[in-house]
Structures are given as structure tokens and as C-alpha cells.
Amino acid sequence: MAEVGLPLLAVAAVAILVLPSGKASKVPGSLVYDSRAAPLVKSLRAARQQQLNREHSCRGCVPVAGDTGGCSGLNVDWTCEVRTAAGPRRTALLETYRVTWNRTGCWSAAED
Predict the structure, then answer these.
(1) Which of 21, 61, 71, 104 shows the greatest Cβ crowding within 10 Å of its Cβ?
(2) Are 45 and 82 in contact (CB under 8 A)?
């Protein structure tokens, strides 16, 4: 039984980690977000908000939505989406970033 059970368990564990969960994304055509990336997207949102505050010389006048967006990726290559609201009518914009990790565990993002 162990000869069959252990390899089968290993295959199932790999399938769970590698194959998509089948959950539909909230916006058609957007990423299927990885819930394990919550700390990354939170950090990216904060960095984007700081950048917008500097660009517009105001605090929060172009807000980054804290409850939307997310990241999807594998190992050191990720793609993240952040939603902002710009202009007088607060038009929602979905910004996409390519995020990479260096050897020390720090990330950098470039608008995609």
C-alpha cells in the first residue's frame, strides 16, 4: 500500500501547487490571483501610493484601492495588478506591473 500511496500523494501535492485553482478572476482577462502573494500586493500598493503622493503633491488625492488587484507568478517572476482612481471623476485604472525578486529577497516592479 505504501508503494502506491506515497507516490500518489506526492503527485497530488504537486498538482495542487502547480495547476490553477479554477477560480475565475473578478475582471475578464485579468490575472488569476495567488492568495500567497498578499504581502507582495500590499507592499506594491503602498509603494504606488507613495509615488502618486509625490507626483501629485498631495496625500491620497489619487488613491490606490486597497481591496482590489493582486499578483500571479512563480519563483522570481510575477505580474501584479493595482487599481487606482485618477482624475476629477475618479476614473478607475488597472495598472499592471512586472515584479522580479533578487537574491536578497527584495522585489522591484516595472509598469508593464
Answers:
(1) 71
(2) yes
Report d(CA 38, CA 88) in Å as an integer.
30
Quick count: other Cβ atoms within 10 Å of Cβ 102? 9
Query: From edge to edge, which strands make up the β-sheet containing 91-101?
Result: 70-74, 77-86, 91-101, 107-111
Q: Considering the entire predicted model, what is its pTM?
A: 0.64
What lies within 8 Å, CB to CB, of 9 at 6+ separation is none
- CA–CA separation, 83 vs 31, rounded Å? 13
CA atoms within 13 A on the CB side of 32: 7
Q: What is the pLDDT of residues 47-64, one digit of tens each?
A: 999 998 888 887 778 888
Half-sphere exposure of 10 (CA within 13 A, CB side): 6
Task: Give the residue carrying C-alpha cell 476614473.
Answer: 91
Query: Both ends of the chain: CA-CA distance in Å?
Result: 50
